[in-house]
Amino acid sequence: MTQQQSTTVLIIGILTLLSLIPWAIALRRARVFGDWDLTSTMVLLIGVLANLPATAYTIVTGRVEQLDPLGDTVVGFPDWVNRLGVIVNGLILLVCVLFIGGRLLVARARINVAPFITTVIVLALAASDALHGQPLWTPRQLTLLAVLLAASVARPGRSALLGGAAVVMVYSVLGGIESFVEPATVVRPCRSDNPCGELGILYAGVFPNENIFSLLVAASIPFVWLGLRGWARVPLVFYLVLVAVATGSFLASVTAVAAVALLGLLRPRLADQRDPTPNTGVAPGRFLLAGTVLAGVTAVGLALPLRPTHSSDLGLRTAIWDLAKDEWTRSPLLGYGGKAWSAKYNSGEIPAAVSPSLHNQWIDMLYAGGVVGLLLFAVLLAYLLFRGGARGFPAAACVLLPVLFASLLERPWSFAISNSMTFALVAATLLPVAARAQAETSVQHHWKPRMMSDV
């Protein structure tokens, strides 16, 4: 590391420790209002456990690349990390089973529609897997199904978003601590094919690479704003924007800035939050602008991989999109299943760098689920966006914008296996929310002197 990079990492570490002050204030306020519950805990555990094996590997071994006898980088994790992954997968399943049992038997929970639609997508991809000779179920696929079933009976709204905010804070704080303990671990070396970002580093925190971390951070910014109350969320949101920029990912930087801009434009409020000016609402022009932005980003995401062959220069993405389009025409209705693309790496057809996904949410869905899968995905997005009507639209738009932006060149939501972003999918599907005004009124009476800071 250069002296400038060391200084930048030190600054990030200091800001991370300072972020604990507003975070502690926000958690205290959440306790007073009763925002944290079993749903928050479930989302937090899903996010922390799913990322535990990879982050543990980074912390324990550092960022030294493992080379084979031929000098090529070894892809994958050692056996102890894989064994930890098996344990973690079992723990997530156990958490979901206990949560479902508690919500059905004790809380008598209602079924949430959005997670149910998501479950249908998972089942559709699994059926396509079976039709094309792939294993019907794998452990991480069963875990994803269990997580979505748990979300189907979870408490929608602020509690789920608060759990999502806690996930990003846990891992950003771990990265900040590691910045002091072993600064070289939190950055990846800059290369000609992967140059440094605006801050002169590729900040990955405790994750194997900066792309995974940047996607998690950018997608979680609306969770922090919507899940927390009062002024404390403002410095936390801008801290996360800084972290997203520090990762060196241009897509994450743009996504984070766009997310904050839309939050500032719409100033969304959840249905369980008292509106001090109930007759004003959001100006129609702002609704129109937000809808236009969402529609435009969606159109670009759809058009990028479907453009004429070799008509753009997006490196390896162009090649894999063209390959996927050529194969998709032989199974356009149901696609090839959620496991088909990653299986190409085992057969030597694609490199490891692009084996997790097609790096675009839309063509990834089209390849895995065909036209049926893509339509189901569109139904899910439309339901999340419009179910709450005019009151729920701002919050839903702010949650979906980072997902749609990231979908241009990444696949933020997986419907084939549980992964690092499953917690974000769960939190998003628990929007919009029904009003709990009566339940919160009694709490607000005890907090009346501070209500002006809660808007």
TrEMBL record:
GO terms for molecular function: ligase activity. Residues 236-378 form the O-antigen ligase-related domain. Keywords: Ligase, Membrane, Transmembrane, Transmembrane helix. It is a multi-pass membrane protein. Its main location: membrane. The chain crosses the membrane at residues 6-26, 38-60, 80-101, 113-131, 212-232, 238-266, 287-306, 365-386, 393-409, 415-435. Pfam families: Wzy_C. It is found in: Membrane. This is O-antigen ligase family protein.
